[in-house]
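Lecture 7 notes: from sequence to structure.
We start with the chain below.
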Amino acid sequence: MRYKERDNTEQEINISPLIDIVFILLIFFMVSATFVKDYDLDINRPKASSSTASSSKAIRVHIDASGDVYIDGQPVRTWVIQNYVREKLGNSGETTVLVVADEGVAAGKLIEVVDQCRMAGAGSVGVVTEQESG
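Predicted structure tokens for the same chain:
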């Protein structure tokens, strides 16, 4: 009697297509995710019961408690806000500007910044507040 020797071949699972799909998903989520830049500015926003959610793509102008204005974390003088905002509006295609102001900022300073943003060509300018609980 003859015995037939069995081939010891191991079955392999090819995971190359799986790795490809994982990388494609990773790239998709990285590109489609929006990141809101929060800078290390200490701003206590005023509370409002009528506040609504804002767009995450809007251009943000920050005013801290001392009245200093920041765009993209860089200090900006009031008379230059219009140029910076106009440039940002042109680059991003966004028409909304949000002013993030500390609750201790004088009304005159807030109005001056909002006016500069409107003169830069912003379609709408809003003031960011915290929604009041209760």
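Points to note: The first strand starts at residue 47 and ends at 48. Residues 86 and 120 are 5 Å apart (CA to CA).
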